[in-house]
Amino acid sequence: MHVIADYSRCVGHGQCLLAAPDVFDLPDDADQVVVLDAEPAEQMRPQVTRAVGVCPVSALSMTD
Amino acid sequence: MDTIVVVGAGLAGVRAAQALRAEGFGGALTIVGDEHHPPYSRPPLSKEVLTGAAAPESTVLPTGDLAATWLLGTEAVGLDRKAREVRLGDGTGLTYDGLVVATGARARDLPGRSDLRGFHTLRTWEDATAFRSAALAARHVVVAGGGVLGCEAAASLRSLGVPVTLIDQAPRLMAPLGEEVSAWARTAHEDAGVTVELGVGIAGFRGVDEVRAVELADGRAIEADAVLVAVGARPDVAWLEGSGLQVDAARGIATDEFCLAVGDPTVMACGDVAEFDAGPRGRRRLEHWSNAVDMAGVGARNLLVPASERSAYRPIPTMWSDQYGLRFQAVGDLGLVTRTAVVEVDQERKRLVVEGVDEGGRLVAALGINAARSLLRYHSDLAPVLEPSSS
Predict the structure, then answer these.
(1) ipTM attached to this prediction
(2) Beta-sheet strands, E only, within B148-189
(3) Which of B77, B278, B288, B376 is the one with CA 20 to 30 A from B164?
């Protein structure tokens, strides 16, 4: 599984952090998320799916 | 299950359709939406779309390849559960094995409003475009309603230089976010030049053909040539009347803890339209982005699996609002909060973290401004409190 953040859309809402804290981070004062793990393990799929779905600006996507 | 019909083509309907496919549903999927547009994201309507920073079309939700039949510009007008058929506005019907109710909510109107022109709501592309034009031409706009939508709209109008009065009969802006966050919001609005009138109701309107002023309950009149009505939303359940499902004009469609309609497990409901059984937390209807996403996911799976494999929906709700560069966020069940306390405040960096506890003193929510990362810690602290059955 591969996670992609579109930085032309991300404005740092941080909803993805709440869904998948091991995959995304939003350091203090950062404006955009940081992808901590762009190739998360398969067992993370539910959390990553939720993170992608909950992004308010559709900035995240995942591919197999 | 061979045929699933999703009624509602907003966020909840789209996420439900995506979840059905992700869960392996390979049958016929039809998505019915009353708007003529492809599914789009509504939160930007009061922000980027209203300010003009983004065109309405830029808010279209990517849906991926759902292999679905889309019936847009098509209204569902009734439900015959005996025949398992959704009745459409054009007189035809759609039969189903499984039904997803995701019709969302419509803007509430002000009770007792006259038929003067100049009133707006903010729920659709057309609403946003019409209100933006009216506001740009207005000498003074009144925003009736100091909730999240009204506050965001007021902030956007100020960035356009439009004079705004923000009115709410409640004593605080965005009252569910607690005293401290509300106070910060009020200061931000007043610093930006918004006239904030709280604790005062609207008594009536003046004008001939077009609205000219808003009359307050204390006798004053506020000039207004455009009024944004932002006094909440009502679940769109009119089409379910007579279906035998448990529906209520104010509370929406009742589901069990699995997001399935009470008394009919072939019907799933999610998003703004659905009031779910939140176990010990009572019944909840949440008009939040995260609730539409999470409920659609859990409900879609529960619609497909055998009864013994269903899982209860116990969300940790989150919400956000952007105003004047301040990002308001909350995590947890705001409906349980009886007391709030500030745990971190930084005026210079405009940061605030507030904890919300329930009657028994348990932490049930955390709220913040420009503090997304701090709220992350609370998210894991809240899980055992708010998700007791699934832990």
Answers:
(1) 0.89
(2) 164-168
(3) B288
